[in-house]
Amino acid sequence: MSDHITLIISSIALLVSICSGAYVAFQAHVYLRQTRFATLSNILEVNRALLLAGFEHPELFDVLEGKTITDGRKQKRYFQLWLNQVHLLWLAHGENIIGAEQWTGHCKDIQDLVSMGSFREHWAAVRIYYSGPFQRFIDSLVESEK
After folding, report:
1. Residue 54 and residue 61 in contact, taking contact as beta carbons nearer than 8 Å
2. pTM of the model
3. Residue 137 has pLDDT above 80, yes or no
4. Structural domain boundaries of the chain?
5. I need a labelling partner for 84 at 20 to 30 A (CA). Which of 11, 29, 90, 123 fits?
6. Contacts by 76-85 with C-beta closer than 8 Å and gap 24+?
7. pLDDT number for residue 127
């Protein structure tokens, strides 16, 4: 009889452990989804802020249209902000936070940025500050523009 009770108690303990593990796995899944969504929301918020800066300083839209503006320092800083955003997108894609379909759309936007001669000049000046894989990514886009 004692073995029978021990078996029942052990079975119940195993069942509770399995249920607890499943619950923890579910909570981890929900947390990862929330984190991905928050990350994507932050990336989109930065995009929005960069575009709003163009409304506040219309010459920045000229920068995005590939035109050179008189304040070269402002142009350089604006390109750097966009390059940092591209880097964040690239990192998020590498961590599977951005899915393949979203990444395809972002790549089209990035290609538009890279197509500007003034951006390519900026990239040539700052590329050494980025990791080799990111350099290769941007360099491949630059090469496709030639």
Report:
1. yes
2. 0.77
3. yes
4. 34-144
5. 29
6. 76/122, 78/50, 78/53, 79/118, 79/119, 79/122, 80/122, 80/126, 81/50, 81/53, 82/50, 82/113, 82/119, 83/122, 83/123, 83/126, 85/43, 85/46, 85/47, 85/50
7. 94
